[in-house]
Amino acid sequence: MSESAQRPRPVIIDPLTGEELVPSPCVSICALDENDVCIGCFRSGSEITDWFMASSAEKRAILARANARRLEQGSNGLS
């Protein structure tokens, strides 16, 4: 495991809303498969588009769905 994968991300609070900001899961492998799912972060095309306007709660739901897709595919997220 790389050093960066071992370190927890710092918690950042949005000064306007007081909500915890949810970091993007993007790993800069931006290619959609035949099911319109990114092979890098496992978000759907619409989830990627919606990310920037989504609330923190919506982003956490997107992350949960992306993680379910990753697990369904059997990927550990490192390849």
TrEMBL record:
Highest taxon, organism lineage: Bacteria
InterPro entries: DUF1289 (IPR010710)
Name of the featured protein: Uncharacterized protein
Species, as recorded: Aequoribacter fuscus
